[in-house]
User: Fold Amino acid ABC transporter substrate-binding protein from Roseivivax isoporae LMG 25204.
Amino acid sequence: MSAQTSDLVSQNAFRVCADPANYPMSDQDGSGFENRIAELFAEALDRPLTYEWYPMATGFIRNTLAANKCDVVIGFAQGHELVQNTNHYFTSTYVLIVPEDGPLADVTTLSDPALQGLRIGVVAGSPPATHMARAGLIGKAKAYPLFVDRRYEDPAPDMLDDLEAGEIDAAVLWGPLGGPLVKSDHPGYKVVPLLNEQGAPRLFYRITMGVRLGEDVWKRELNSQIRRNQDAINTILADAGVPLVTDMGTEVLEVGQ
Assistant:
């Protein structure tokens, strides 16, 4: 395999490009679910795991993957033009987070009349904000910033802290952020995958690994590892609290224990 793989891909280490402060996905202390997936792949490839840490903001790919300081980004949305995507290894969706024993516990869509007049937290410019506007919920919504350096600002935990404090009535977050944060830090709250929203934009996304453009042999190797290790990947994600959905975002994917 060594002779076939692009010269830029290290044969001596599984070199991962990652954000040092992007918990619950990646964290410099190794606690994120992407860290656990990276450990799984490093073991499967029989290479030591190394990281190139850089905040997931403007310049991330330019300063990590494109600069040949690492060889793979563990989590990247399908179709991103800055990288070549592997096959996707999970699909997730935006979620509504509400008190599990409160009056909103049965709400499953943003168009539910029960949400009218309430203050809902949402990340400004994110896809569900469009659905909230269509449902007449933006006027009272509390917006949180989309592009931040999470070493200094942390919108998702801030939103859930505001929900717990009663400053907002419900929260809308990307599932792989909201699900694990609720599981680890906010017991008593319910994570509802938003599977039934009508119209654009879609709220589910397939997540791949990102590699350099043109490194097809490396991509095929990672695709092979994804296929072989899919059950273990699903277990890592489910254990973390990531809501998994089917490829077309139509129903929740149950992971066998």
The domain at 93-193 is CATH 3.40.190.10 (D-Maltodextrin-Binding Protein; domain 2). The mean pLDDT is 94. The two ends are 34 Å apart (CA to CA).
